[in-house]
Amino acid sequence: MSQTLPPPDHHDPLQRLLAIMERLRDPQSGCPWDIEQTYASIVPHTIEEAYEVAEAVERGDMNALRDELGDLLLQVVYHSQMAREDGRFDFSDVAAAIGDKLVRRHPHVFGDLDVPDAAAQTVQWEEQKARERKAKAGSSLHSALDGLTSTLPAMTRALKLQNRAARVGFDWPEIKQVVEKIDEELAEVRAELDHITPDDGRLKSEIGDLLFTVVNLARVVGTDPEAALRHTNRKFERRFRYMEQRLAEQGKTTGDVCLEEMESLWCEAKTTDEP
Protein backbone atom coordinates (compact mmCIF):
# COMPACT_ATOMS: atom_id res chain seq x y z
CA MET A 1 0.00 0.00 0.00
CA SER A 2 1.37 3.41 -0.94
CA GLN A 3 2.08 5.89 1.83
CA THR A 4 -0.45 8.71 2.25
CA LEU A 5 1.41 12.02 2.16
CA PRO A 6 0.17 15.49 3.06
CA PRO A 7 0.01 18.05 0.24
CA PRO A 8 3.10 20.26 -0.15
CA ASP A 9 3.13 23.26 2.19
CA HIS A 10 4.46 26.48 0.65
CA HIS A 11 3.72 30.08 1.53
CA ASP A 12 4.01 30.98 -2.15
CA PRO A 13 0.83 29.69 -3.92
CA LEU A 14 2.65 29.23 -7.24
CA GLN A 15 5.47 27.22 -5.67
CA ARG A 16 2.83 25.15 -3.86
CA LEU A 17 1.09 24.43 -7.16
CA LEU A 18 4.38 23.39 -8.80
CA ALA A 19 5.15 21.10 -5.86
CA ILE A 20 1.65 19.55 -6.00
CA MET A 21 2.08 18.83 -9.72
CA GLU A 22 5.47 17.27 -9.09
CA ARG A 23 3.97 15.05 -6.38
CA LEU A 24 1.07 14.01 -8.65
CA ARG A 25 3.57 12.91 -11.31
CA ASP A 26 5.85 11.06 -8.89
CA PRO A 27 6.32 7.52 -10.31
CA GLN A 28 6.23 5.95 -6.83
CA SER A 29 3.66 7.90 -4.83
CA GLY A 30 1.80 9.94 -7.43
CA CYS A 31 -1.64 9.63 -9.00
CA PRO A 32 -1.86 6.78 -11.57
CA TRP A 33 -3.91 8.91 -13.99
CA ASP A 34 -1.55 11.88 -13.80
CA ILE A 35 1.51 9.65 -14.21
CA GLU A 36 0.10 8.13 -17.42
CA GLN A 37 -0.54 11.45 -19.17
CA THR A 38 1.56 12.75 -22.06
CA TYR A 39 1.84 16.09 -23.85
CA ALA A 40 -0.61 14.83 -26.48
CA SER A 41 -3.17 13.47 -24.01
CA ILE A 42 -3.24 16.75 -22.08
CA VAL A 43 -3.70 18.99 -25.14
CA PRO A 44 -7.51 18.51 -25.41
CA HIS A 45 -7.85 19.59 -21.77
CA THR A 46 -5.69 22.66 -22.43
CA ILE A 47 -7.90 23.70 -25.34
CA GLU A 48 -11.09 23.07 -23.37
CA GLU A 49 -9.87 25.16 -20.43
CA ALA A 50 -9.05 28.10 -22.73
CA TYR A 51 -12.60 28.04 -24.06
CA GLU A 52 -13.99 27.90 -20.52
CA VAL A 53 -12.00 31.03 -19.68
CA ALA A 54 -13.57 32.74 -22.69
CA GLU A 55 -17.05 31.64 -21.62
CA ALA A 56 -16.57 33.00 -18.09
CA VAL A 57 -15.46 36.35 -19.51
CA GLU A 58 -18.45 36.53 -21.85
CA ARG A 59 -20.81 35.77 -18.95
CA GLY A 60 -19.09 38.38 -16.82
CA ASP A 61 -18.73 35.79 -14.04
CA MET A 62 -15.60 36.81 -12.13
CA ASN A 63 -15.76 33.91 -9.65
CA ALA A 64 -15.89 31.45 -12.54
CA LEU A 65 -13.11 33.37 -14.31
CA ARG A 66 -10.84 33.00 -11.27
CA ASP A 67 -11.47 29.25 -11.19
CA GLU A 68 -11.11 28.78 -14.95
CA LEU A 69 -7.85 30.75 -15.01
CA GLY A 70 -6.60 28.39 -12.32
CA ASP A 71 -7.56 25.41 -14.47
CA LEU A 72 -5.76 26.96 -17.44
CA LEU A 73 -2.67 27.68 -15.32
CA LEU A 74 -2.68 24.03 -14.31
CA GLN A 75 -2.30 23.09 -17.97
CA VAL A 76 0.85 25.23 -18.24
CA VAL A 77 2.20 23.72 -15.03
CA TYR A 78 1.36 20.20 -16.27
CA HIS A 79 3.22 20.58 -19.57
CA SER A 80 6.12 22.26 -17.81
CA GLN A 81 6.42 19.42 -15.29
CA MET A 82 6.50 16.80 -18.05
CA ALA A 83 9.16 18.81 -19.90
CA ARG A 84 11.16 19.09 -16.66
CA GLU A 85 11.04 15.32 -16.27
CA ASP A 86 12.33 15.00 -19.85
CA GLY A 87 15.17 17.41 -19.14
CA ARG A 88 13.93 19.94 -21.72
CA PHE A 89 12.71 22.97 -19.74
CA ASP A 90 10.71 23.84 -16.64
CA PHE A 91 8.12 26.38 -15.52
CA SER A 92 10.81 28.99 -14.81
CA ASP A 93 12.04 28.69 -18.40
CA VAL A 94 8.49 29.17 -19.67
CA ALA A 95 8.02 32.27 -17.51
CA ALA A 96 11.42 33.66 -18.54
CA ALA A 97 10.67 33.13 -22.24
CA ILE A 98 7.35 35.00 -22.15
CA GLY A 99 8.91 37.75 -20.04
CA ASP A 100 11.70 38.21 -22.60
CA LYS A 101 9.15 38.24 -25.42
CA LEU A 102 7.02 40.90 -23.73
CA VAL A 103 10.03 43.16 -23.18
CA ARG A 104 11.18 42.61 -26.78
CA ARG A 105 7.76 43.42 -28.21
CA HIS A 106 7.22 46.53 -26.07
CA PRO A 107 10.19 48.77 -26.89
CA HIS A 108 7.93 51.79 -26.28
CA VAL A 109 7.64 50.72 -22.63
CA PHE A 110 11.03 49.11 -21.96
CA GLY A 111 13.01 51.10 -24.53
CA ASP A 112 13.05 54.46 -26.25
CA LEU A 113 10.61 53.83 -29.12
CA ASP A 114 7.74 56.34 -29.31
CA VAL A 115 4.32 54.75 -29.95
CA PRO A 116 1.50 57.35 -29.80
CA ASP A 117 -1.56 55.10 -29.42
CA ALA A 118 -2.96 51.56 -29.31
CA ALA A 119 -3.39 51.39 -33.10
CA ALA A 120 0.26 52.26 -33.66
CA GLN A 121 1.24 49.72 -31.01
CA THR A 122 -0.69 47.00 -32.86
CA VAL A 123 1.23 47.81 -36.04
CA GLN A 124 4.54 47.82 -34.17
CA TRP A 125 3.69 44.51 -32.46
CA GLU A 126 2.89 42.80 -35.75
CA GLU A 127 6.03 44.18 -37.39
CA GLN A 128 8.13 42.80 -34.54
CA LYS A 129 6.42 39.41 -34.83
CA ALA A 130 7.07 39.44 -38.58
CA ARG A 131 10.77 40.14 -37.98
CA GLU A 132 10.93 37.26 -35.52
CA ARG A 133 9.23 34.90 -37.99
CA LYS A 134 11.61 35.98 -40.74
CA ALA A 135 14.62 35.41 -38.50
CA LYS A 136 13.30 31.97 -37.56
CA ALA A 137 12.81 31.09 -41.24
CA GLY A 138 16.49 31.85 -41.89
CA SER A 139 17.48 31.33 -45.51
CA SER A 140 14.25 29.55 -46.47
CA LEU A 141 11.44 31.38 -48.25
CA HIS A 142 9.54 33.60 -45.82
CA SER A 143 5.77 33.89 -46.17
CA ALA A 144 3.45 36.42 -44.57
CA LEU A 145 1.44 33.37 -43.44
CA ASP A 146 4.32 31.68 -41.60
CA GLY A 147 3.78 30.70 -37.99
CA LEU A 148 0.00 30.26 -38.05
CA THR A 149 -0.96 27.21 -36.05
CA SER A 150 -2.71 24.63 -38.21
CA THR A 151 -4.70 23.22 -35.27
CA LEU A 152 -6.58 26.44 -34.53
CA PRO A 153 -10.38 26.29 -34.89
CA ALA A 154 -11.07 26.75 -38.61
CA MET A 155 -12.92 30.05 -38.17
CA THR A 156 -10.18 31.53 -36.00
CA ARG A 157 -7.50 30.41 -38.43
CA ALA A 158 -9.45 31.89 -41.37
CA LEU A 159 -9.53 35.23 -39.56
CA LYS A 160 -5.80 35.10 -38.87
CA LEU A 161 -5.00 34.16 -42.47
CA GLN A 162 -7.06 37.10 -43.70
CA ASN A 163 -5.44 39.51 -41.24
CA ARG A 164 -1.98 38.44 -42.36
CA ALA A 165 -2.91 38.84 -46.03
CA ALA A 166 -4.48 42.24 -45.38
CA ARG A 167 -1.28 43.54 -43.76
CA VAL A 168 0.58 43.12 -47.03
CA GLY A 169 -2.21 44.78 -49.05
CA PHE A 170 -4.21 41.73 -50.16
CA ASP A 171 -7.62 42.95 -49.01
CA TRP A 172 -10.98 44.27 -50.20
CA PRO A 173 -10.96 48.07 -50.60
CA GLU A 174 -14.68 48.38 -49.72
CA ILE A 175 -17.11 46.44 -47.50
CA LYS A 176 -19.68 46.23 -50.30
CA GLN A 177 -17.23 44.12 -52.31
CA VAL A 178 -17.14 41.55 -49.52
CA VAL A 179 -20.95 41.47 -49.41
CA GLU A 180 -21.01 40.98 -53.20
CA LYS A 181 -18.53 38.14 -52.81
CA ILE A 182 -20.83 36.49 -50.25
CA ASP A 183 -23.68 36.69 -52.77
CA GLU A 184 -21.40 35.14 -55.39
CA GLU A 185 -20.32 32.30 -53.12
CA LEU A 186 -23.92 31.62 -52.05
CA ALA A 187 -24.94 31.44 -55.70
CA GLU A 188 -22.23 28.82 -56.28
CA VAL A 189 -23.53 26.77 -53.36
CA ARG A 190 -27.05 26.97 -54.82
CA ALA A 191 -25.77 25.96 -58.25
CA GLU A 192 -24.14 22.88 -56.78
CA LEU A 193 -27.32 21.99 -54.86
CA ASP A 194 -29.33 22.27 -58.10
CA HIS A 195 -27.51 19.24 -59.48
CA ILE A 196 -29.53 16.04 -59.30
CA THR A 197 -26.67 14.43 -57.38
CA PRO A 198 -24.47 17.17 -55.91
CA ASP A 199 -20.76 16.36 -55.81
CA ASP A 200 -19.90 16.11 -52.11
CA GLY A 201 -16.37 17.37 -52.69
CA ARG A 202 -17.45 20.40 -54.70
CA LEU A 203 -20.30 21.20 -52.32
CA LYS A 204 -17.95 21.08 -49.33
CA SER A 205 -15.54 23.36 -51.17
CA GLU A 206 -18.26 25.88 -52.07
CA ILE A 207 -19.64 25.95 -48.53
CA GLY A 208 -16.09 26.45 -47.25
CA ASP A 209 -15.65 29.39 -49.63
CA LEU A 210 -18.92 30.89 -48.38
CA LEU A 211 -17.91 30.55 -44.73
CA PHE A 212 -14.46 32.00 -45.43
CA THR A 213 -16.03 35.05 -47.06
CA VAL A 214 -18.47 35.53 -44.16
CA VAL A 215 -15.46 35.53 -41.82
CA ASN A 216 -13.95 38.19 -44.06
CA LEU A 217 -17.05 40.34 -43.68
CA ALA A 218 -16.88 40.02 -39.89
CA ARG A 219 -13.21 41.03 -40.02
CA VAL A 220 -13.66 44.16 -42.12
CA VAL A 221 -16.54 45.43 -39.94
CA GLY A 222 -14.56 44.75 -36.75
CA THR A 223 -16.55 41.80 -35.40
CA ASP A 224 -14.86 38.70 -34.00
CA PRO A 225 -16.56 35.87 -35.94
CA GLU A 226 -15.92 33.31 -33.18
CA ALA A 227 -17.54 35.59 -30.59
CA ALA A 228 -20.42 36.34 -32.96
CA LEU A 229 -21.09 32.65 -33.56
CA ARG A 230 -20.83 31.83 -29.85
CA HIS A 231 -23.42 34.56 -29.22
CA THR A 232 -25.73 33.03 -31.82
CA ASN A 233 -25.18 29.53 -30.41
CA ARG A 234 -26.27 30.72 -26.97
CA LYS A 235 -29.27 32.51 -28.49
CA PHE A 236 -30.28 29.38 -30.39
CA GLU A 237 -29.99 27.29 -27.22
CA ARG A 238 -32.12 29.72 -25.17
CA ARG A 239 -34.86 29.80 -27.77
CA PHE A 240 -34.84 26.05 -28.33
CA ARG A 241 -35.07 25.42 -24.59
CA TYR A 242 -37.93 27.93 -24.37
CA MET A 243 -39.77 25.99 -27.08
CA GLU A 244 -39.21 22.70 -25.22
CA GLN A 245 -40.42 24.26 -21.97
CA ARG A 246 -43.60 25.60 -23.56
CA LEU A 247 -44.31 22.18 -25.05
CA ALA A 248 -43.67 20.52 -21.68
CA GLU A 249 -46.27 22.84 -20.12
CA GLN A 250 -48.73 21.35 -22.61
CA GLY A 251 -47.66 17.80 -21.76
CA LYS A 252 -45.88 17.44 -25.10
CA THR A 253 -42.38 17.00 -26.51
CA THR A 254 -40.89 17.96 -29.86
CA GLY A 255 -41.69 14.45 -31.05
CA ASP A 256 -45.41 15.05 -30.53
CA VAL A 257 -45.81 18.12 -32.74
CA CYS A 258 -45.24 19.12 -36.34
CA LEU A 259 -42.67 21.60 -37.61
CA GLU A 260 -45.30 24.33 -37.97
CA GLU A 261 -46.13 24.14 -34.25
CA MET A 262 -42.46 24.30 -33.33
CA GLU A 263 -41.98 27.27 -35.67
CA SER A 264 -44.86 29.07 -33.93
CA LEU A 265 -43.25 28.58 -30.52
CA TRP A 266 -39.87 29.58 -31.96
CA CYS A 267 -41.32 32.89 -33.13
CA GLU A 268 -42.84 33.33 -29.67
CA ALA A 269 -39.41 32.75 -28.14
CA LYS A 270 -37.89 35.39 -30.41
CA THR A 271 -40.33 38.03 -29.15
CA THR A 272 -39.27 37.42 -25.54
CA ASP A 273 -35.53 37.01 -26.15
CA GLU A 274 -32.70 39.45 -26.80
CA PRO A 275 -31.49 39.81 -30.41
Describe this protein with a few key phrases.
single chain; 275 residues; mainly alpha; Helix Hairpins; 12 helices; 0% strand; globular
What does this 3D model show about the protein?
With 275 residues, the chain is mostly helical. Among the domains are: 13-104, MazG-like (Helix Hairpins, Orthogonal Bundle); 227-272. Helix content is 70%, strand content 0%. The chain has helices at 13-24, 32-36, 39-59, 62-85, 91-104, 107-110, 118-137, 154-167, 175-193, 200-220, 225-249, 259-272. Helix 9 (175-193) runs antiparallel to helix 10. The longest helix is centred in the C-terminal third of the chain and has 25 residues, at 225-249. The protein is globular. The relative contact order is 0.05.
What's the gist of this structure?
The protein is mostly helical and 275 residues long. Helix content is 70%, strand content 0%.
Would you tell me the overall average pLDDT?
89
Strand content: under 5%
Shape: globular
- Structural class by sheet pairing and helices: mainly alpha
CATH topology of the domain at 13-104: Helix Hairpins
* Main sheet overview: none
Low-confidence sequence ranges: none
Order of helices and strands: HHHHHHHHHHHH
The number of helical segments is: 12
Based on CA atoms alone, the radius of gyration comes out at 25 Å
CATH homologous group name of the domain at 13-104 = MazG-like
Strand segment count: 0
Name the helicity range. Answer: over 70%
Q: Please give the CATH architecture of the domain at 13-104.
A: Orthogonal Bundle
What's the CATH class label of the domain at 13-104? Answer: Mainly Alpha
The end-to-end span amounts to 59 Å
